[in-house]
Amino acid sequence: MNHADGRYLESKRTVDDRALNRRVRDRLRDELPASPRVLEAGAGTGVTVPRLLDWGVTAGEYHGVDRDAGIIEVARERRCAELDGTPTENGFRVGDLTVRFDQGDALEAFGTDRADLVVAQSVLDLVPIDDALDAFETALDPGGLVYAPITFDGETIFQPDHPADDRVVAAYHDDIDNRPGRDTRAGRHLLDRCCERDGDLLAVGASDWVVRPRGGDYPNDERYFLATILEFIESAVDGPGVDEWLETRRQQLAEGTLSYVAHGYDVCYRVP
Predict the structure, then answer these.
(1) What is the pLDDT of residues 194-220, one digit of tens each?
(2) I want to staple 263 with a disulfide (CB 3.0 to 4.6 A). Which of 141, 155, 200, 255 is the partner?
(3) Count of domains in the chain?
């Protein structure tokens, strides 16, 4: 599958929406100023922007950064169209909220920007946590906020049961952990790092991806989302029985009987 058009990121939007922890989100909203300056590391297709508007953040500045230039173009075009924004050079404007997207490394591209909030969704299992928190503290004014929703934490579940589940999932996690900066237990390690630092861990809660069929079908584009997860596993795992496991899971997906859960945490942290 070619994900350059952003379909995978768009297909998981509804999965993310269900997963986000409302208690953590509400604490974040309570802490934000009326017109916040928001930076997002790993902005993807920019779906944080409509979420901010839904949460009542209708004024201020948003600057999203992603390393994939093609995805950044998708973000500019789709979110502007979705929100009926007024196009600008690198983004658009919606009422009193200015939106900008740029290509760059999520931990290095903010430059001299200063912020009240850094958002890092599904990012801190991809990069060294301490490096990320150091970069975010540099970008934030004193007392600024880090919001790290859907940080993966080591549980991947497929249903119905299959005899090879434990072996396949363990090999998949091992492949992730063997890559530089990656961490399948990033959620719990993020909590440890926040508690060790001089800031305040304001809120934490579970945020699990849960995808299940309904009447033999999947809502929105979530069948594609699950197909992509199986593709990730196929590219990471080999050995006896893996092909049969994948064939069974893909057949279940086609029949509308496959369910999937991935455990994560939402974290809201205030820097010193």
Answers:
(1) 999 999 999 999 999 999 999 999 999
(2) 155
(3) 1
Q: What is the reported pTM?
A: 0.95
Instruction: Give domain status of residue 166, yes or no.
Output: no
**Alpha helices of the chain — where are they, by DSSP H?**
7-11, 13-19, 22-31, 48-54, 69-82, 129-139, 165-177, 186-196, 222-236, 242-255
What residue type is assigned to position 212 of the chain? Answer: R
**Is the CB of residue 133 less than 8 Å from the CB of residue 193?**
yes
Is residue 65 one of the residues assigned to a domain?
yes
Task: Report the b/e string of 82-92 with b at 16+ CB within 10 A.
Answer: ebebeeeeebb
Cα–Cα dist 105/28, whole Å:
25
* CATH code of residue 13: 3.40.50.150
176 assigned to some structural domain? no
Domain boundaries, position 136: 7-154+182-210+263-270
Round to whole Å and give the CA distance between 62 and 93.
10
* Residue 147 domain flag: yes
Enumerate residues 6+ apart whose C-beta is below 8 A from 55: 25, 29
Instruction: Give the tens place of pLDDT for each residue, 33-84.
Output: 999 999 999 999 999 999 999 999 999 999 999 999 999 999 999 999 999 9
Q: Give the number of other CB atoms < 10 A from CB of residue 202.
A: 18
